[in-house]
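Researcher: Re-running this chain for the archive, since the previous output was lost when a drive failed. Same request as before.
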Amino acid sequence: MSLARLLPFVAVAVLTASCSEDPKPTVSGGAVLRLQTPVCKDAAGAVTPCPERCNDGGTELKIAVESTEKNPDGSTIYKLILDNADGATVKCSISASTFDLTVGSATRGSLLLTGTLDPKSKVTSGTASTIKGTTTSLTVLTPGGNSYRQVTGKPACTVTVNENTGCTMGEGCFKATFACDYVYDRSLGGACGINSSGAASTFVQFANCEVN
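Model: Regenerated structure tokens:
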């Protein structure tokens, strides 16, 4: 068969293959944070009184998530927001040692979070694993308009990634808790901490992330 007669068949085959590819799943994400009194430390690491006040102390922030229903134990089930849904922007890129996360909308607040992970810190128990890390940058814009950010000279936030069956970083799923001693309130001039320990509803979670 000549090349001229073969080309139409090649074109049909390529078109069929491209049409049969599954569409890439839409990225989704969200976070629930709890603000508390900031923690300040001196050069030796001892806790000292902070001059700033936490104007939103005790507030639970729902960033780009909506409450849907309750689990049998009474805890809230949260629905993550999809990229481009209602004007939302959701991006996430993760690897074994880094993460770069963005989620936000005009009405539901926003979170920008980047950091590093220590693969050697991974601890596995049964089907669950934890991995420790720290943040390199953090910016939170609350639905009410207040803005918090990580500042130079203050300790980085600590991160604990939680992997289990159905949610692993290798599959593009990133679920973690993180805690910050001190984040500066750019809107009101105060400072707060971000609590994750002891608060089951405090989390950051993304799905269908780019895996590097």
